[in-house]
Amino acid sequence: MKKLICILPLTLAVAPVFAASLTQAERDRAVAELTASRQQFLDSVAGLSAAQWNFKPDEKTWSVAECAEHIALSEDLIFGSVTKIVQAPAAPDQKSAVTDDFILKAVVDRSHKFQAPEQLRPKQTFATPQETIDHFKQSRERTIAYVRDTQDDLRGHFFDHPVLKTMDAYQWILLLSAHSQRHTAQLNEVKANPNFPKE
After folding, report:
1. How far is Cα 147 from Cα 164, in angstroms, rounded to an integer?
2. Torsional sign, CA 89, 91, 96, 99
3. What is the pTM of this model?
4. Which end of the chain has the lower number of beta carbons within 10 A, N or C?
């Protein structure tokens, strides 16, 4: 009995190593969403001239350049938050406030407008359109590789979204995809403006 008592603390100490990783279906879904939304963005900005890239319909509306910068900056910030939060102890008793499907639908819905936080507002971070695009591509590839390979317990770690409230780390990955879709739609609205440069 004494030997069993001695072994028990050791067992508890190593238990967190065996945290639940994502199912293959969860990985596949996230990778598919991230891959599709990446292509939507890249298609939407392909071949634009400098005039088209920087066109603003009015002072309050972001240009294609500003939308693209926001997408690229958000990728880094959200991914960094996910990889940081999974280093903390898991919270297996906590619950998400929303479902995966809700995130993928609600975030893309542009009938509801929100102010971007200060750190994600465009500030001409990138020198050229190609630099913006290349930065996004590298960041998104890193995100996809992480989802494919990670053994982190993304379902057991949570942090709050200012509107959607409590979400698990996997849902934040899904939000990354939906967020880029949302702002790709926004830049496509700019391209549809009647005053958008022809070339």
Report:
1. 22
2. positive
3. 0.86
4. N
